[in-house]
Amino acid sequence: xxxxxxxxxxxxxxxxxxxxxxxxxxxxxxxxxxxxxxxxxxxxxxxxxxxxxxxxxxxxxxxxxxxxxxxxxxxxxx
Length: 78
What we know:
Keywords: Membrane, Transmembrane, Transmembrane helix. The chain crosses the membrane at residues 12-35, 41-61. By secondary structure, the chain is an all-alpha fold. The chain has one domain (5-71). It contains 4 helices and no strands. The longest helix has 26 residues, at 5-30. It is elongated, with a radius of gyration of 16 Å. The mean pLDDT is 87.
């Protein structure tokens, strides 16, 4: 059970947003001609912005420590 649900699930939301953005960015490298056409270009640019925001958030709040502390079976490093 998590001790601080707001902190734990916010960290998890940042992690999921980074993962989804990573998939979108990777698809831009796999099918670049599809990503340059129409609205998918703005989706690609938005994914890059979200990834940068997630990296900044992760760096400022020490996201790996929060994830390990809240979701580890033994409660993290004590």
